[in-house]
Specification:
Blueprint: H1 11-19, E1 24-25, H2 26-36, H3 45-57, E2 61-64, E3 73-76, H4 78-102
Antiparallel strand pairs: 1-3, 2-3
């Protein structure tokens, strides 16, 4: 099986995509990443907006209309969800192989 060019995702990118299963603006994305990672991943604003630009370019997220005109709101695309699923499957395989070899 050929691996998608977007894989593997970085830990930060994985959490950003997870956080955008529901529409969110930048500050909320940073909060959600910290929550999802059990405070293990903290993103600076510059890092977040660089990642958002990259994810937009690759079509993994998109900007959506929001009632708050001061903040841009983003959501994961279907392609982004598929990449998230593929990376999840990749990690599950790694866990399965590692478990079998370590036990």
């Amino acid at each position: 099986m050929n691996r998608d060019k977007n894989l593997p995702l970085t830990e930060t990118t994985y959490y950003i995509l997870l956080s955008l299963l529901e529409p969110a603006h930048g500050y909320r994305i940073m909060q959600k990443v910290e929550e999802l990672s059990d405070q293990q991943v903290k993103i600076a604003a510059g890092t977040l907006y660089g990642a958002i630009d990259n994810l937009l370019k690759h079509g993994l997220i998109q900007s959506v209309k929001s009632e708050d005109k001061r903040r841009k709101t983003y959501v994961i695309t279907d392609e982004g969800k598929e990449i998230l699923r593929l990376d999840y499957a990749r990690m599950q395989h790694m866990i399965k192989v590692t478990t079998s070899l370590l036990n």
